[in-house]
Amino acid sequence: xxxxxxxxxxxxxxxxxxxxxSVEQRVNPALRGKPIAVCxxxxxxxxxxxxxxxxAHGVKTGMTVPEARAICRNLIxxxxxxxxxxxxxxxxxxxxxxxxxxxxxxxxxxxxLDITASLILFGSGEAIxxxxxxxxxREMGLSASVGIAPNKILSKLGSGLEKPDxxxxxxxxxxxxxxxxxxxxxxxxxxxxLERALAEMGIRTCGGTGKGKHGTxxxxxxxxxxxxxxxxxxxxxxxxxxxxx
Length: 245
Description:
By secondary structure, the chain is of the alpha/beta class. The chain contains eleven helices and eight strands. The strands form two sheets. The chain has a five-stranded mixed β-sheet with strand order 5-6-1-7-8. Helix 4 (82-96) crosses helix 6. The longest helix is centred in the middle third of the chain and has 16 residues, at 125-140. It is globular, with a radius of gyration of 19 Å. Residues 214-218 and 220-239 have low confidence and may be disordered.
């Protein structure tokens, strides 16, 4: 992503909704509106992703197929087709690049777009995000959730707040209320080891990171200071835990 300027950036994070399952439902109309789980070839493998209809029954990524079937008896198990998903991902990338050349592919179903220099051509961040969502639905038959923020961490957080088909902008002024009670593990880059280290310092929420003291025991906070040194916040919405799929 671009850097080196002191101006405030506008970053989009685009996260496709239940990507593997949604692609399968698009390809096979008989699956639409039904609870499906995309899995590997082995009958006892784990769920790679589940449709929102299956999630309503409690089916989650990482469950074994027998576990998923136990809580959703009418679950339809679909073998994954990674060649198909990669092809769809390439087509999505082509759409993104119509709005900015500064695209960072984060995974097969996620990407960051630096649209800072594109605002003069296409309007606001919300206008660009809405246009992208419209094209993805029209051309690909899929839905996406988009987060807009001054940096990647916050834009990724935003994309998960109103899934599916969400569009959330996080301004600097929004940050305190949004992060105050959010568990630290919900932020991109906070893995199990750092989560444990923060817990040992009594820090379990993102709001707590701003109250930590930088020093020998606070070195993990200093190393991750962009998470605690962004200030601002009031969205008018109650804070929600992000959906990571």
